[in-house]
Every structure is written in C-alpha cells, then in structure tokens.
Amino acid sequence: MATTSPLHVLVSGGGIAGNAVALQLLRNGIRTTVVERAAAPRPGGQAVDLRGPSKVAAERMGLLEGIAKYQLDERGMSYVDGDGEIYARMAMEDFDGAGIVADIEITRGDLNQVLLDALAAADTGLLDYRYGERIDRITQDEAGVDVTFASGGTERFDLVIGADGVHSATRALVFGPEEEFSTNLGAYGAFFTMPSPAGIEPGWFGMRMIPGAMLGIRPDADPATSKAIMTIRATPDPALRRDPAAQRALIRRTFAEAGWRAPEVLAALDTTPDFYFDEVARVDVPELSAGRVTLIGDAGYCGSPLTGMGTAMAIVGAYVLAAEIAATPADLTGAQRRYQEVISPFLDKAKEIPGGSLALMLPNSRAMTALAKLNVRIMMSRPMRPITKKIYFGHTDDFSLPNY
Ligand SMILES: Cc1cc2nc3c(=O)[nH]c(=O)nc-3n(C[C@H](O)[C@H](O)[C@H](O)COP(=O)(O)OP(=O)(O)OC[C@H]3O[C@@H](n4cnc5c(N)ncnc54)[C@H](O)[C@@H]3O)c2cc1C
C-alpha cells in the first residue's frame, strides 16, 4: 500500500458527490474510507446533464470516456397536451447542446457506476468502501475526528466529508437540525423507471403541464424503458416522508385526469424497481465546514431538482474540495476555507430556479397554466432561442473553474 499523504479522510455517502470526492482524494494519494448506508450501489434516477463548469470538471477528472459509454440518445424535449399533441419543441441542436437537453446526458445511476469504476481503477489499496454502514456519532478536537459507526466501533479520522444527500445525517450531527438549512419549496418530486409506452417518440423527452403539476417521460439507456419524472405542488406534509403508499396515492390523485401517457405512468407505479420520492427542497448551509467536518453536494447546497444542477454542483464541489485538500494537506482549515471561497459564486448561480420561482414554473390555476404554455412556445421560438439559452441554461457559464 503506497500512502503519499498521512491524511485519512472519511466520506459519508456514496452518491455522486461522495464517490467523486473519494476518487480525487485517492488519486492524490490520500487514504479514504467511504460509508454508504445502502447495502449496494443505489440504482435509479433520471438523466442528469453535465454542462459548463461541471463538464469541465468531469473532463479534468478523466470521466468523459466512461460517460460516453452510457451517453443517452436524447434528442430534445416536446411539450404535449392531454391528447398528445405537441405544442412546443426544443431540439438539442437548436440550443447547441446547451438547452434543457444538453450534449452530455447520462442517467444518475450510470454516472454513479462510472465513478465506481474509476474508483476501482484508481485504488492502490488506499480505499476502504463500506456498504450498509453509517455514522452514529461524531466528536472532534483540534487534532482529529472520532467517529462511532452504527455497526459499532469508533475510529479516528483527520477529516470527515458529509456527502449524504439532502437529508444529511452528518449535517444533523455536526451543524444542526435539518429545518435550519432546508426549505421545502412547496412541492414534491418523483422519479422512476417504467416500460416505454408503445409508440412514444424515441429519444424525445415528453413533458405535460397541468395546473400545479408536471409529468415527464424521458428516454432511458435501454429503449425498452423510460424514466417517469414528476413535480407536484403541495403543502409540505411530514407524514409523507416515510410513507410510500401515501406518496403513490398523491401521484395517482394528481395525474388521474392528466391524459397523454399518464395511465401508463400510473400503471407502472406499483411495479417499478426504483421509485424515488422526495420533497422539492432548497438547502443552504452558510458555512460548509465546522471544525474538521465539511459538507459537499446536496448535503451542503441544493437548489432543488427544479434547477437541474444538483449533479453539476456535486461534481464541481468534489473536484474543488479534493484539490484544495491535496494542495495543503497540513493546513486543512485553509483548504476548507478556499473550497468555500472558490465554489460560492458558482453555487449562488446554480441554485437559481430557471424562470425565477416554482409559482412561475408550475402555476396552480388553469389560466396561469395557459400563460405558462404560451411562455414555453415563445421561449422555444427561433428568434428567442439565444435569449432563452442565456437566461435559463447559461447562467453558470461565467464561472471559471480553477485548473488544479
Ligand atoms: C437513488 C437516487 C435517485 C435520484 N434521482 C434523481 C433524479 O432523477 N433527478 C434529480 O434531479 N436528482 C436525483 N437524485 C438526487 C441527485 O443524485 C443529487 O441531487 C445530486 O446528484 C447530488 O448528489 P449527492 O451525492 O450530493 O446526493 P445523493 O445522490 O442523494 O447521494 C447521497 C448518498 O448518501 C447516502 N446516504 C444517505 N444518508 C446516509 C447516511 N446517513 N450514511 C451514509 N450514507 C447515506 C445515500 O444512500 C446516497 O447514496 C437522486 C438521488 C438518489 C440517491
């Protein structure tokens, strides 16, 4: 085992952020332990896109070749009425690969697999990856962090990175309760895999807007399946959190009369292998580090799935944090401070909801929904495309990612 750094870092969470930061730490010769609560890599998730700074980070991390193997055949997006009639269309090339559908589209599960493959390839004995494990307790002093695991046993680390998602346990243990940092924006989101409806246009992301909700069907890596994606405006209800039956009931009620492909989507609800449901929440943690514990990804910053930027922020955050740690392993406080300084301007932009707010994106009334549809038509019309691209999709392009 060739250790080039005396550091030992613990990463909590084996999602995109956790695996990306672990990869970059390993490549810098830093001993890394990852604990992932799930018993195996978590599949699922719809297409995530890499654009602007996150594409640059993925390229510098050498991930593009792996990503290319899973690249989705996604050609654009169509807005449809209840009878399936298309009223607006956004082809990928109309926006030079920088519209809703970017030139790099990969499902979240596949991107996670690319990272896991890269981790296996980069491991020279410095990686300790534990599934079915989580942190129970954290105590820290000036020289290190003592972590007690759920399976028992306490170990000491130089740094703990919380990459355990929007409901981060690391954040709750060290920074404070979830309510302090997370704001439910008044909606719920769900994603799951379903059989591709017969006759659906291959490669096109179909989207149906109804008052207070939207329903999308997105291409999957396997043409036989598609990804259902939905957002539903609703008053926050804590009882929904751990009640998949109530979550499914909400979806059924909302889309019962939606027409288009809603019946096929609802029919798949009970048999899908990867039903994912969560509140549409924004996470803001003003100071991303507390002593020797630092947050990355959704645990520390999340603009909600409506921004489409969660994975981009996770990749950029992981790239910057690992590089700063590697730059000054003897000065972790300095590395943590620079991480925050470097990514803050990017996060401020990336957390913005395209169009300004959920109310504008997903109006509740029939009249406002009709107006939103008109707005979509205008946005996608040829003369408006450069403006749409700049306002909705290019808002993080000005951020210049340091080349470490
Ligand atoms: C299964 C799944 C499907 C998703 N699908 C979509 C999608 O379709 N569209 C979308 O916009 N976003 C989706 N997301 C969220 C998206 O992945 C993130 O917004 C983004 O990639 C940032 O990633 P992250 O690593 O910070 O968080 P996440 O991807 O949420 O990863 C966090 C990881 O930490 C693990 N974890 C949680 N708690 C603990 C704990 N106490 N101890 C150890 N490990 C823990 C989780 O199991 C998970 O693997 C999904 C997330 C998951 C987990």
From TrEMBL:
GO terms for molecular function: FAD binding. InterPro entries: FAD-bd (IPR002938), FAD/NAD-bd_sf (IPR036188), FAD_aromatic-hydroxylase (IPR051704). Residues 8-327 form the FAD-binding domain. Transmembrane segments: none annotated. It holds the Pfam family FAD_binding_3. This is 2-polyprenyl-6-methoxyphenol hydroxylase-like FAD-dependent oxidoreductase.
